[in-house]
Structures are given as structure tokens and as C-alpha cells.
Automatic annotation (TrEMBL):
This is DNA helicase. It comes from Aegilops tauschii subsp. strangulata. Residues 35-115 form the MCM AAA-lid domain. It is an enzyme of class 3 (hydrolase). GO terms for cellular component: MCM complex; nucleus. InterPro entries: MCM (IPR031327), MCM_lid (IPR041562), P-loop_NTPase (IPR027417).
Length: 157
């Protein structure tokens, strides 16, 4: 528990202990306070940087969006690129990493695609917002990554 008069170091130590304490217990469902502690912990602890692979995926997606005639060109701005990077970094933090991997980039793209009324990648495959949690999320990421890489094709370097 974090006390009101505690120092920043004491708060970090208490937060570290609170997050780590859930692992051995095998908790399947986190309480809201536990989730808040986890998010606070990863935001303070991790400052992810893009790997070359993640940069390639994000850059390729951005270029595809810029060149695709079916999208509103006004929506595909540098702010969208910055948002993709921030979303990928946030996903990396949630996954307890200091590097943004290509799977983090894929998660960011899926998030952006889900927010669009017309999607360049997932329209034909269903709505990402109506998906369920998978038993094997890593396999699901790999499957989604392959779909996105197929669509990006020449835009990847």
C-alpha cells in the first residue's frame, strides 16, 4: 500500500511489490485497483524505443494510408504517424518491454484500423472490436501480423 507521506522511492518499491505479487498467485482476473497499479508501474518503469522491424511496419502502414485513394487524405497526417508510434509504445509497456517489437506495431495498427469507418486492412476479415480474447494470443498476433504484412507488401523495407 502506498502512504500519503511516502517518498517517491518508497512508492516505487511498494508499486513494484504490488505488481510482482500478482504473478505467483496465478490471478486470472485483476481487480481495478490492481490494474491501475500495474498501469502506473509500467508507465513509470518502461520507456520503449522502436526497433527497426517495428519502424518498418509502422512506416509501411503510414505510406499505404497516404497512397490509398479510398481514405480521406486529411485523416492521414503526421499526427496519425505519431499516434501509431505512441500506441505501439503503450502496448510494449503493457507487455513489460523497453523495445517496441513488430507485434506492438501490429497491435497499434489494429487499434487504428478499428477506429476507422473504412479500413485498408481488416474490413474484409471482420470487425476487430467484436473479437474475443484468444486462448493463445501470441498465435493470434502472428496471424494478424501476416495479414497486415501481406497487405503492406511493397511498403515494407
Amino acid at each position: 500500500m502506498i502512504r500519503m507521506n511516502s517518498t517517491k522511492a518508497e512508492e516505487n518499491k511498494a508499486s513494484d511489490a504490488a505488481v510482482k505479487s500478482t504473478q505467483p498467485l496465478g490471478i486470472k482476473e485483476w481487480t481495478l485497483p490492481c490494474l491501475r497499479r500495474y498501469i502506473h508501474y509500467v508507465k513509470q518503469r518502461f520507456k520503449p524505443v522502436l526497433t527497426k522491424e517495428a519502424e518498418s511496419v509502422i512506416s509501411g502502414y503510414y505510406q499505404l494510408q497516404r497512397r490509398d485513394g479510398t481514405h480521406n487524405a486529411a485523416r492521414t497526417t503526421v499526427r496519425m504517424l505519431e499516434s501509431l508510434i505512441r500506441l505501439a509504445q503503450a502496448h510494449a509497456r503493457l507487455m513489460f518491454r523497453n523495445e517496441v517489437t513488430r507485434l506492438d506495431a501490429i497491435a497499434a495498427i489494429l487499434c487504428i484500423e478499428s477506429s476507422m469507418t473504412t479500413s485498408a486492412i481488416i474490413d474484409g476479415d471482420g470487425n476487430a472490436l467484436n473479437s474475443n480474447f484468444q486462448e493463445n494470443p501470441d498465435q493470434e498476433y502472428i496471424k494478424e501480423e501476416q495479414k497486415i504484412r501481406d497487405k503492406l507488401g511493397d511498403y515494407l523495407y
